[in-house]
Design a protein that fits this description.
The complex is a heterodimer of chains A (788) and B (212). Chain A is an alpha+beta fold and 788 residues long. Chain A has three domains: 197 residues, Aldehyde Oxidoreductase, domain 3 (Alpha-Beta Complex); 324 residues, Aldehyde Oxidoreductase, domain 4; 146 residues, Aldehyde oxidase/xanthine dehydrogenase, molybdopterin binding domain (Aldehyde Oxidoreductase, domain 4), CATH 3.30.365.10. Chain A contains 20 helices and 28 strands. The longest helix of chain A has 27 residues. The termini of chain A are far apart. Chain B has one domain: Alpha-D-Glucose-1,6-Bisphosphate, Chain A, domain 4 (2-Layer Sandwich). Chain B is built from four helices and eight strands, in the order E-H-H-E-E-E-E-E-E-H-E-H. In chain B, strand 3 and strand 4 form a beta hairpin. The radius of gyration of chain B is 16 Å and the shape is globular. The two termini of chain B are 14 Å apart. In chain B, 49% of the residues are buried. The chains are: A alpha+beta (788), B alpha+beta (212). The interface between A and B is medium-sized, with 21 and 15 residues. Chain A: This is Xanthine dehydrogenase family protein molybdopterin-binding subunit. Chain A: GO terms for molecular function: iron ion binding; oxidoreductase activity. Chain A: Keywords: Molybdenum, Oxidoreductase.
């Protein structure tokens, strides 16, 4: 089925409704008698809440209720949990201070939730919000990652002395020291991985509804993982039975990780709907998205790489301080540890790696997973180190990478940082990328740029990521509070169409197309006959949702397994109908045949028979509806090489990305067009981090200074070139589809490639992101500043 | 934010002082001021409507004078709330000095904004505050050096001032803060002139810190 099956660039089925304004998002949903919530947020980064006077707000027109943390405490509403326990270097669990949906005693960041006003209209709620008088006792604030622990910083939580969440290590420090003692050269760098604000196109929204007749709730929410949200709310926050909550995440307009987590607002809307006995709705305005979506990145790192005289890597030491923000978001602890330090081997045979990560609390919004989640930070450390090492050693940047690549015959390859890579071919992506960019022609292109008064540079990023998250036993041993399998239910309808219920969630990835291609090809039915259903815990089997480039590798594998079960059951029915033994019935492209005969039945005929079982095998149940759960055996390891070429105008400091080649190995590809789109989007986000985006808090007051698009610069189409995307393929060895995942690769690879290219153009070793025109201009025009 | 500056007013110190003693002069000259209420000899409240870009909001502030050294200088501190727009607080050191026949008013503002003011306005506040300060001194200098104050104008007005009139008040370009040490502790009972002058500077602060 070349037009719609695996490997075909089928146009996205879901785009019709999106492009014609017929998508259905959380904010599009309205319930009878619905009320609106407005959150009163702290304007202070750190303050005691001495009192809240609600009288005037409660008396305002249209106001139904005003609640504070005390009201939620009275109802025994719990803390928003962090679901991953990281044990520190002494074996003790991370410090887990409570994170109440409405603050109780202190506000700890600008935007922290202090009270909620419920009113008949949003405007009434918002106006009354101005009447809520909060008596704050201002406290000194700390916003800087590197200053959180300097002793003078105000402590945020009694539970976390000196603002330390954990001090965690991976690897053997003594072995690393021994490797460094033998080094011919040691490259050292200091890096800041700049803090980012996710900026999904659709802001977060929630609509909670209580049904008094059944004492149960329905929560509509912008979630990437409705079942996980349901589990957290029921088991940890409210202490209620899971059969009393249905979570529906309809169309979701982008998440990038920020919609994985259990947030205060949805928790409050759900709780309040029972208090006021009416549905309660909240949709973030853009300012609220800036202040209260979980942010990303924010690392301060010192890293060292030891080499022999040939540039062969002998060892690596990495020391990182990671900002957790004011509270621990749902999976925040895992991001700078198990999703970061475990990737520090990169594509290389570095034999010894030691990493020390300190996670700190600051008076800033919580920080959690954002597209790539730990892996962009790791790639940035490794690929900046390697680039600087190449320049210091006088080795070509491609050559130093080649000398250290893990070779194809070394797989499965056990890294010194816990992961075992199953397969890869890094030389293949290197060769292809160098050819596509015409690496040999770079010197001539640089000369041509110089003739125009421009500075030209080229930068590499040989990234690797651990995706297909994740084997439950492995992550469980590392502290995860959940299993990370995925589910799928494949239901043949009586008249031949198929409904697929997946625990994955699509919020831009194109699952409805890719999964349909997979099912259409596997079952041999037209793609139009396949429907993908996701996002409603009332209709889909328990599933873990979408993040970590896992949907196809884990969710797709579950679908594949469920299809296999459908085929096996159908084979028995077909054998009965064709009066043959099961072993003699073959299945190909939607048709069952008795081997060596002309007898055949289509799978649609079998499905009809399963629901109208007038002539049916005695030992087979009616119906054709199978569910499968798939728990991966390992992570998948997408890898590749991105090459960025820039041209800088030294008169203005403006960096233009003039070429970009991305060669990625995602294993088997279902839909090349969807994959290419994911790569494009990922690169755009990575370039955004490298050139434009930067979340800034005032270092003294903790005020968010980049709280709108006037000060927080998102990448636009004219900031980007036409990316040239190439693929290589080594099929994943341990999932039924041979796929690896592609959603995060661009964001992981791009920052290092961009900064490597800019520093190459400027003839310097290091600079911090974002490479704004002002910063680049200074580096281009003030050589003494560049002599780091 | 920090804002330092100096204004030269083409009038004698006495003339400036006299004008500063007239509340109606200030009502006319302060852009966007809606209320000024003295709450003690060294404190007052003010309400100012300020506009930055598309956002207009009313700010209520409390201002206190200290380190009084009439008529040479004082320290002024204030805080205020702009509702959903956030909060602001800060202080300024102010120093008046004679310069030939003219008077130099030096100010050194250190203000901090919070909430939405910081998130959206931090880039705009400096420019807006400078512009509003310029507006004030333009009107004030016109009034002081140009004749009788427009005492009939009881409500705030925002007339368009020809550029020519603004020549009367020349914002100095110096960014170094003037030495405004006001060591003399006069204590309570400051004169009417001092607190009215305080209003002037308070409005500078209000403009600076509430300018959204």
């Amino acid at each position: 089925m070349p037009d719609t099956g695996i490997g075909a660039s089928v146009k996205r089925k879901e785009d019709f409704r999106f492009l014609t304004g017929q998508g259905r998002y959380t904010d599009d949903i309205n319930r009878p008698g619905q009320l609106h919530a407005y959150f009163v947020r702290s304007p202070h980064a750190h303050a005691t809440i001495k009192g809240v006077n609600k009288t005037a707000a409660e008396a305002a027109e249209g106001v139904v209720a005003v609640f504070t943390g005390a009201d939620m405490a009275a109802d025994n509403v719990g803390s928003l949990p962090c679901g991953w326990v990281v044990n520190d270097r002494h074996g003790d669990p991370h410090k887990a201070p409570p994170h109440f949906p409405l603050a109780r005693d202190k506000a700890r960041y600008v935007g922290d939730h202090v009270a909620v006003v419920i009113a008949k209209t949003y405007d009434a709620a918002r106006n009354a919000g101005e009447l809520v008088e909060v008596d704050y006792g201002e406290l000194p604030a700390v916003a800087e990652t590197g200053k959180a622990q300097d002793g003078s910083a105000q402590q945020l939580h009694d539970e976390a002395p000196n603002n330390l969440c954990y001090d965690w290590v991976l690897g053997d420090e003594a072995e690393a020291d021994a490797a460094f003692a033998k080094a011919h050269h040691i490259t050292k760098i200091d890096l800041i991985n700049n803090r980012l604000i996710p900026n999904a196109m659709e802001p977060r929204a929630a609509l909670g509804e209580y049904d008094g007749g059944t004492d149960s709730f329905t929560l509509y929410s912008t979630s990437q993982n409705p079942h996980l949200l349901k589990l957290i709310l029921c088991a940890f926050v409210f202490g209620m039975n899971e059969n009393k909550l249905r979570v529906i995440a309809p169309d979701v307009g982008g998440g990038f990780g920020s919609k994985i987590f259990c947030y205060a607002e949805e928790t409050v809307c759900m709780w309040a709907s029972k208090k006021v006995r009416a549905p309660v709705k909240w949709t973030a305005d853009r300012s609220e998205s800036f202040t209260s979506d979980a942010h990303g990145r924010d690392h301060v790192t010192h890293a060292e790489l030891a080499m022999d005289e040939n540039g062969k890597f002998l060892g690596m030491k990495v020391d990182t301080t990671a900002n957790m923000g004011a509270y621990l978001s749902s999976f925040s602890t895992s991001v700078p540890t198990y999703l970061y330090a475990t990737l520090l081997a990169g594509q290389y045979t570095t034999p010894v790696i030691f990493a020390n990560v300190k996670a700190v609390f600051t008076n800033t919004a919580p920080v959690d997973a954002y597209r790539g989640a730990g892996r962009p930070e790791a790639t940035y450390v490794v690929e900046r180190l390697v680039e600087v090492a190449a320049r210091e050693m006088g080795i070509d940047p491609a050559e130093i990478r080649r000398r250290n690549f893990i070779q194809p015959d070394q797989f499965p390859y056990q890294t010194p940082v816990a992961l075992q890579y199953d397969i890869g071919d890094y030389e293949a992506s290197m060769s292809k990328a160098l050819e596509m960019i015409d690496y040999d022609g770079f010197a001539a292109r640089r000369s041509a740029s110089e003739a125009k008064g421009k500075l030209r540079g080229i930068g590499f990023s040989s990234y690797i990521e651990a995706c297909g998250i994740a084997p439950s036993a492995v992550v469980g041993s590392l502290g995860a509070g959940v299993g990370l399998w995925e589910s799928a239910q494949v239901r043949f309808n009586a008249t031949g169409s198929v409904s697929v219920f997946t625990g994955s969630h699509s919020h831009g990835q194109g699952h409805e197309t890719t999964f349909s291609q997979l099912v259409a090809e596997t079952l041999g039915i037209p793609i139009e006959n396949v429907e993908i259903v996701h996002g409603d815990t009332g209709s889909i089997p328990m599933g873990m949702g979408t993040y970590g480039s896992r949907s196809l590798a884990v969710g797709g594998s579950a679908i594949s397994r469920a299809c296999d079960k459908i085929i096996e059951k159908s084979r028995k029915i077909a054998a009965h109908l064709m009066e043959a033994s099961v072993e003699d019935v073959e299945f190909d492209a939607g048709t069952f045949r008795v081997a060596g005969t002309d007898k055949e039945k289509s799978i649609a005929e079998i499905a009809f028979t399963a629901y109208v079982p007038h002539n049916y095998p005695e030992d087979v149940e009616p119906g054709l509806d199978e569910t499968a759960f798939y728990d991966p055996l390992n992570f998948t390891y997408p890898a590749g090489l991105h090459i960025c070429e820039v041209e800088i105008d030294p008169a203005t400091g403006v960096t233009e990305i003039v070429d970009w080649v991305a060669v990625d190995d995602f294993g088997k590809v279902i839909n090349p067009m969807v994959v290419e789109g994911q790569v494009h989007g990922g690169i755009a986000q990575g370039v955004g981090q490298a050139l434009l985006e930067n979340c800034v808090y005032d270092k003294d007051s903790g005020q968010l200074l980049t709280g709108s698009y006037m000060d927080y610069c998102m990448p636009r189409a004219d900031d980007l070139p036409s990316f040239r995307v190439g693929l290589t393929e080594t099929a994943c060895t341990h999932n039924p589809l041979g796929v690896k995942g592609c959603g995060e690769a661009g964001a992981i690879a791009a920052p290092a490639a961009t900064i490597n290219a800019i520093t190459n153009a400027l003839g310097i070793l290091s600079m911090d992101m974002p490479a704004s025109p002002e910063k680049v201009w200074r580096l281009a025009n003030e050589p003494k500043m560049a002599a780091e | 934010m920090k804002m330092t500056g100096q204004y030269r007013i083409e009038a004698t110190k006495e003339a400036v002082w006299t004008a500063l003693n007239d509340v109606e002069v200030l009502r006319v000259c302060i852009p966007g001021v809606e209320e000024i209420e003295k709450t003690s000899d060294t404190s007052f409240t003010a309400k100012v409507r300020a506009k930055v870009g598309p956002v207009s909001a009313r700010f209520a502030g409390n201002v206190t004078l200290s380190d009084l050294d009439p008529p040479n200088g004082y320290t002024i501190s204030g805080e205020g709330k702009g509702g959903a727009a956030g909060f602001a607080k800060g202080g300024a050191k102010v120093h008046l000095e004679e310069d030939g026949g003219a008077t130099l008013l030096n100010y050194d503002v250190d203000a901090q904004v919070g909430g939405k003011l910081a998130q959206i306005g931090s880039r705009l506040i400096d420019g807006t505050a400078k512009k509003m300060a310029d507006d004030f001194f333009s009107r004030f200098a016109e009034t002081v050096s140009g004749g009788a104050p427009e005492t009939e104008a009881a409500a705030p007005q925002e007339p368009a001032h020809p550029a020519a009139q603004q020549k009367d008040a020349v914002p100095a370009e110096s960014t170094s803060a003037p030495d405004a040490d006001a060591d003399a502790d006069v204590g309570a009972g400051a004169s009417m002139g001092v607190w009215v002058t305080g209003i002037l500077v308070a409005v500078l602060i209000l403009v600076a810190i509430f300018a959204l």
